[in-house]
Amino acid sequence: MINLSNRYTDLAIEAHEIFMNSSEAKQQAQEGKTPPGVVIENAGDEDVKITRVRITSRTGEASIGKPMGNYITLEIPELKDNNEDVNKKTIDALARELRDMLKLKEGSTTLVIGLGNWNVTPDALGPKVVSNLMVTRHLLQYVPEHVDEGVSPVCAISPGVLGITGIETGEIVRGVVDRLKPDALIAIDALAARNMERVSTTIQIADTGIAPGGGVGNKRMELSEQTLGMPVVAIGVPTVVDAATLTNDAMDLVIDSLMNESPKDSGFYNTLKDIDRDQKYELIKAALNPFVGHLIVTPKEIDDIISRVSKVVANGLNMALHQGITLDDVGRYIN
Amino acid sequence: MINLSNRYTDLAIEAHEIFMNSSEAKQQAQEGKTPPGVVIENAGDEDVKITRVRITSRTGEASIGKPMGNYITLEIPELKDNNEDVNKKTIDALARELRDMLKLKEGSTTLVIGLGNWNVTPDALGPKVVSNLMVTRHLLQYVPEHVDEGVSPVCAISPGVLGITGIETGEIVRGVVDRLKPDALIAIDALAARNMERVSTTIQIADTGIAPGGGVGNKRMELSEQTLGMPVVAIGVPTVVDAATLTNDAMDLVIDSLMNESPKDSGFYNTLKDIDRDQKYELIKAALNPFVGHLIVTPKEIDDIISRVSKVVANGLNMALHQGITLDDVGRYIN
Amino acid sequence: MINLSNRYTDLAIEAHEIFMNSSEAKQQAQEGKTPPGVVIENAGDEDVKITRVRITSRTGEASIGKPMGNYITLEIPELKDNNEDVNKKTIDALARELRDMLKLKEGSTTLVIGLGNWNVTPDALGPKVVSNLMVTRHLLQYVPEHVDEGVSPVCAISPGVLGITGIETGEIVRGVVDRLKPDALIAIDALAARNMERVSTTIQIADTGIAPGGGVGNKRMELSEQTLGMPVVAIGVPTVVDAATLTNDAMDLVIDSLMNESPKDSGFYNTLKDIDRDQKYELIKAALNPFVGHLIVTPKEIDDIISRVSKVVANGLNMALHQGITLDDVGRYIN
Amino acid sequence: MINLSNRYTDLAIEAHEIFMNSSEAKQQAQEGKTPPGVVIENAGDEDVKITRVRITSRTGEASIGKPMGNYITLEIPELKDNNEDVNKKTIDALARELRDMLKLKEGSTTLVIGLGNWNVTPDALGPKVVSNLMVTRHLLQYVPEHVDEGVSPVCAISPGVLGITGIETGEIVRGVVDRLKPDALIAIDALAARNMERVSTTIQIADTGIAPGGGVGNKRMELSEQTLGMPVVAIGVPTVVDAATLTNDAMDLVIDSLMNESPKDSGFYNTLKDIDRDQKYELIKAALNPFVGHLIVTPKEIDDIISRVSKVVANGLNMALHQGITLDDVGRYIN
């Protein structure tokens, strides 16, 4: 569910970058210290770059502005180009990271939730992933003899959004979880990134729980390992940038570029340096009024991109959850 | 959810017609008796003909083959022609009958369920009705000052079907009902008719509960006033005829027509009379094998028809549930 | 464009079967003669059975009821099951047969026409194939440096149907052909079969030209090698059976079965034998009135099937027209 | 077809505003002169504000940057709110202005072209308008007895875009025009606005011809009264703002606001005044690289908005072209 209520990013990796650019972090770096409570691990290659961010303490939480837990980011610059080889590498990496995070026993039942609004193109990622998923729980229940070895029980729903159902998404998910009692919950969602280059090229996996329609600030609706007693993994792909954020960041680049061109200590340089960047952001929001929070920036080709990326994410899930089968088998299970 | 597992109709009015044509019923009629346990009431006009069938006893149940309760049928021959006047009369009649059946107190919360598979055109009626519904529960909760007088809390979900979710539809609905505790439940579903002329021209309202995906015969999943402690109303529109039923009925017409043309007591007449109609039905099913239960007969224009009829049914619901507003207000509430 | 105006099939292979069952053909067979003017050739295997019917004379035309020319049929019983291996074999066979029929020189420009109504699920095959096609003419014109070796100029339109555009489809195609002057024309269309088993399991390729919306009988609108001076190939897949035809054929099977069970020369046997099958067909049409020509029989899963089969047909075309590339390259060219 | 190749607007009314803010125009105004070659006329009310801009000379062309001719703009702030009353007023005004511009004789045949890419939500306006159009040419040709008095022959196509068909859109339209020889051509297209407030609230009608996919600069493909010998009217609705333009304009607002707050002749004020705004625009484009020309800014609800606005525009056309009918009759003619 794309939530543009603040200028901050849904991606831990971007939040970390922003922190690393802060004066606080730069000073720590000069002193040879790494930020406490944040552990970074790199893997993968240039096609699929993997970054594992672990936030291990309250200090880490405060620095990054994200709850404690594990955040794995796959960066795949060619993900939106529909390159068959890159797609396969992405599916493999996603399946591997998911399996490591979920640590499911054989035969575990997984419930997959496709968050977001299917009527809003860039928000439809979750429901589209669900529609490409190998849903098998009912087959194992009613016709197990027709199911391949190594297929696990997977079920899935796309609960819609508050504006469509009139019901908090968390209520629907809770209701289903209470009756089904699955062994793990996976939620798929479209995210907002800060940097346009991340749109449709980044996949984030996190084990810190979800708060669908979180802007409303409803603690009761949080879905996490703590509240549900089962692993809760969120998979997100940024599909938009908030217009105010984009404008603000472009403006910062322009100011930096003008400063680079001016002699240091010239009046012009100092004036630019003195621009209050927070005040500027408020001005931009005023300029975009009454559209703030409602304007999204996307590539023109977003309809196509969403449908391609959804297939890749769904197949990553299919390979992670059904360990006995290969990509060639998936077709027979998809409606 | 279109269920073609038997040749019988989902419509009480058709079941009643079939019974009235049986030799048992004909004999009763000759004796001046009406079938016990079935009360029929007619209303409406030639544009929107209303038939209220009440099954009041076990004998009635046995005759008609439907559970005890109220079945209201609207027959609107021009419903599929998109005639504005007829649409408005239908919406009025549907709203009136629904209100009478639901008898809701002001401010009651209604949960509407759009049953069926949105990927199968003639089965998508339920989800399409939901997408044209005035969903207002969240508005009354969070921004009541923006809601017109006389708008009641309505929420709605389209839970999908077992083949898509891997979860019994009844489980999902139960889970949501348990958390939301609405005052009434309304389920919308596409039906199978026996007579092609009923397709997209008939709306049935019943208060006897629903068993989504009922073929499976899962008592636990029945949703009714008895099991849930709140009114449960089902609204259905036939959108298909089962191919085996159509073939069988067409064949009966042919046989009858041949019999009419032959001299009574001729060998030919007697031969035709002796054809075992049940055996014939079995032969037809064999002839259509392996497609039996999977072949549907629909008008070519079914995609259009479904989308028109969905709007009419949704507006009947909108007018029934939000008694303070008019059709002209609906647009402002629909996404 | 699905045309249900008569009970006959769009498939040459079915028309040939019907002829071979006629008393005329049976007598010829007894006399050791093959039907003159019809040459049959078989190829392929049990996964993809290939039958090449060549009608070489007016006598052949009269027997089969189809114009002189070549008709190639691929029969793929598992086509609708989304089996990856069978899909690949089908794509290979389709590409090979198409290349042999088209005999295009390198660098030839092909115009592909997706016939049918995109709003009517079983009629949307043509437009869906076009949407999965590698369209390249503009790339070769404007950015040839970004196009792989062995990619030929392909362009494509889905002209809609008379009821949507108000224009004879043939007029639109003619208008575009006149301006573009391609080297070959390929038209894709959904067909009506006689036998339910052929639906979504058969692909027909023919070089005899097309008459879109042919029921209207407009000679001026025929698109063929003769009228356009370029190869015109039609690719068709049956997606429906006409309800009257289905009913009629099921009834014949029932009658045959009853006859088999009765002692020969019994009154019953003779009565059944004497049923006038043409009169019976008229009675069925009357029984289905006013729906005759508007009722279609399809599998319930037709939406899914259409989208799968469209991809296979599109890839057969992609492999036939762009001889320098492989299936793995297609993704990069599809929007 | 949304073309983001430059920062300028598709709307004559915005181009005129930009000109009126230029130093050149301000000086003319001080001298009491109005810009030569531009005639402005206002009409309508606050719900539907009508501005008729007529560019009458080369000087006017040069000032505004748009070709000579008539540009009528309807501004409807509530167009995106689905208010029934405002919709009806808009349809009336649009029908009236269109009739005045087209001046068609009774019985004239109109060809409507839905420009744009149906797979790209904000570009799908043209095809969506066409799908809500009363297409009647074929009915008047084949079943005139079923057509109401006062219905004129209308036909319509959505030719797609170069990237989908591989064919210049102008070629397809030309081919169809050559064969059909209609009396008038109307093209519907999604536009890019400069000001976010115009998105989905403004309808522009112009009689200056169209150059579909015009960025390519292909004179041969221009469709205008001059090249075709019949009235050519373009109807456009802005659905996006280019991200670079939005960023640039927001930045200008920020700079202006900072200047307003600083004492005039302060160093800061002068520095801001000296920022080269063209250089700034180049910097923004560099900052948005490699996305320039591919990023669009839209309201999140664009899918809904497009479908509502399409209906209003289509009904404006229906009322303009079929003068004998009312809005209540339209339903019976739409598929």
UniProtKB/TrEMBL annotation, chains A, B, C, D:
One of its GO terms (biological process) is spore germination. Pfam families: Peptidase_A25. Its EC number is 3.4.24.78. GO terms for molecular function: metalloendopeptidase activity. Residues 1-10 form a propeptide. HAMAP family: Germination_prot (MF_00626). Belongs to the peptidase A25 family. This is Germination protease. The gene is gpr.
